[in-house]
Amino acid sequence: MRARSKEIRNYMLKACRDKSVNVAADTAKQFGISRQAASRHLHVLESSGLVVSTGIKNTKRSVLVPLQTRSWKLTLAGLKEDVVWREHIAPLISDLSQNVRDLWHYGVTEMINNAIDHSDGVSLMIRFSRNAIDTEVTLVDDGEGIFHRIQRLTGLYDARESILELAKGKLTTDPQHHTGEGIFFTSRAFDRFVIISRNLHFSHQAEKDDWLIDSDTDLPGTGIYLRLSNDGQRTIKEIFDEYAEPDEHSFSKTRVPVKLARHEGENLVSRSQAKRLVSRFDKFKKVILDFEGVEEIGQAFADEIFRVFASTHPEVTLIYDNITPEITRMIERALPVK
Fold first, then answer.
1. How would DSSP label each residue in 287-320?
2. pLDDT per residue as tens digits for the range 238-253
3. Domain locations in the chain as residue ranges
4. Which residues of 15-116 form beta strands (DSSP E)?
5. What's the pLDDT tens digit per position in 222-243?
6. What CATH homologous superfamily does 68-238 map to?
7. pTM, whole model, 2 decimals?
8. Residue 184 to residue 43: CA distance in whole angstroms
9. What is the number of other CB atoms lying within 10 angstroms of the CB of residue 97?
10. How many CB atoms lie within 10 A of CB 75?
């Protein structure tokens, strides 16, 4: 019975994290229990100070209560990411498992270092919040903005193309000092990873796909949001190993969400779109093209990737995933006849 109650309450906590309305009714349906029984579980969470609810009956909204919150405004000049970690963040998660602390150590220090070396900003605001199931860290600098900085320094036509390049990995505007791996692996390590900069919003969630949102606002600087379960099971080694070939330890494999090559309202039909997609694929031994969210592609787009690029870069293995029958036909047309 205890295990069952724990499962039900953990489900409720996750629903509350997402600011779910009518959590008790949703839980009752999920577990096949009465509404009254579900309400008793919710009351336990409220009495424990983990959840606060407002409204009544079908309009009742339940949200998680932050158990720890901290914030710091730091000057970027002379800042050292390891000192920030050791003095501010590490003490607040010292009771979590080693693998979770390792993920936080990696992600936080990488993102602070990016702000120090690349933002051209003056200050960095860090906000920490921990609740019953998750820990969240938000880092906001007042610099140029990551997507527009990448656009300017790499000569991209549109700042949105920066997101596609970041999603591939190994993108750096300072190759002498950085490998371009920090954002890529941090985005894969956390349950949720978000970058908001100027009018662009990029998010990656564990077990879900990358996506891009244009916003009407134009927020200065760069904001990065990290969220990780307090009892997560992933390890930093598993994250690195996922993008390395067997018996290798180098970053030799990547997974690219193809839909990021498509600007809003576009279909993927042209060779120029395909060339934008395959840019820097030659830095990897294996590239997995994830077509999730793409229903069809044009003949020229397919030909440029699966015949032209593939024939001129035989050292790069192209693998495709989540393809529709329409995309399959286009790829088959582009493949060389054997």
1. EEEE-TT---B-HHHHHIIIIIIHHH-TTSEEEE
2. 999 988 877 667 889 9
3. 2-64, 68-238, 249-334
4. 51-54, 61-64, 68-75
5. 999 999 999 999 999 999 998 8
6. Histidine kinase-like ATPase, C-terminal domain (3.30.565.10)
7. 0.88
8. 41
9. 14
10. 10
